[in-house]
Amino acid sequence: MAMQTRPRRSTDxxxxxxxxxxxxxxxxxxxxxxxxxxxxxxxxxxxxxHQLLEQLAGEDCVHNWKNFGSDGTxxxxxxxxxxxxxxxxxxxxxxxxxxxxxxxxxxxxxxLMHGFPHPGFCVLGRCYIIPEFRGRGLYRxxxxxxxxxxxxxxxxxxxAVHLGSDSNWIARVVANHQLPGWPRFIHLGxxxxxxxxxxxxxxxxxxxxxxxxxxxRRALAGPRxxxxxxxxRHALAATEWDDVRNVGAAVRDGFERARAYxxxxxxxxxxxxxxxxxxxxxxxxxFG
Length: 288
What we know:
nine-stranded mixed β-sheet, alpha+beta
């Protein structure tokens, strides 16, 4: 059964709203869309959380909270997430006057896992749009909010942003998100997740921030490059194309050949090595 979220009074919350985003549709079923706002908060009442977790448990998706169960509290969920990696969870409510309805959830992790050695590689995960609110442009707004959170948190130290999904619809959005000031995501390869006891393949995407990508390209600059370096430059140029897949393996193969050639003997390859460490840590399927 689809989850039917009930309107809540804004006084039901802890007053920790972190952002207000102007409304984009009359989700309450009226024609007064201009009066609606999307509220982003880190709190959720217990009834909404229980309904959300029950909905996830019964849906055919790769959301990792299916491994958590449907009876936990927000405090337990936060502990569970942060045992995996440092994570913040954001709940998205549509607000009109003094009433609020939950429409989506999403999380941001500071790093891929505890112990990952390179800061500035954020992970966007746990996104879920309540079924009755799908198809109304909410995912792009949830994506935008989390990207801006990453930028605010890490500033110029933000190198890349990762997300994974098995949804063709999500793939289309991330390939052409049209968010001002943000580059496109590239398809790194596939990763295998275990959700509710079942192994599933999902597509892994990575957004390389321009400053970080420029550092990588500087390591490849120079006259008379060998074919292996040309191939590596070509693989990294995929950040500007819409239909290229498995960029991680292409970068790995080009880097190994260029290193064997001696191209990096006098050049700083730290950023490329960071990228490959990330791909191995995901881990991408077949990425040795």
